[in-house]
Amino acid sequence: VDQAGYQAILSGNLGVHPTFLYESLWNLAGLFLVYHLGKKRRFDGQCFLFYVFWYGLGRAWIEGLRTDQLKVPGTTLAVSQLLSAALVGAAVGILHYKHSKLRKQKQENQ
């Protein structure tokens, strides 16, 4: 943030989001979801993969609210949002693969 931006924040003219609060609340909600998922998990690693999905989703949203993002040179894309989107995609892909594998095993056992 440059000097003009810093002064705008201090004077209240530039609104900023309390991203630490948003992230804390998001992660608290994720803790409850992972805890309840853990009681019904179907395979090892399911809770971890859900956490990666949940954290990536929240991080992509929250980073969009920040005013001090690191951008990919020559674009308007934030590095952290791209990384978060990649984590979400990887977690969804692995979860889908594992669930498909379980479904196939269940059909073979019947």
What's the gist of this structure?
The protein has 110 residues and is mainly α. It is built from 4 helices and no strands.
Q: What layout of secondary structure does this protein have?
A:
Blueprint: H1 3-11, H2 19-39, H3 46-63, H4 79-109
Percent helix, as a range, is over 70%
What is the end-to-end distance?
A: 62 Å
Order of H and E elements: HHHH
Low-confidence stretches: none
The average pLDDT score comes to 90
Radius of gyration: 19 Å
Number of strand elements = 0
The share of residues in extended strands comes to: under 5%
User: Please, how many helices?
Assistant: 4
Largest sheet geometry? none
Query: Which structural class should the secondary elements be placed in?
Result: mainly alpha
Overall geometric form: elongated
Describe the structure.
This protein is mainly α. It contains four helices and no strands. Helix 2 packs antiparallel against helix 3 and helix 3 packs antiparallel against helix 4. The longest helix has 31 residues. It starts with a helix and ends with a helix. The mean pLDDT is 90.
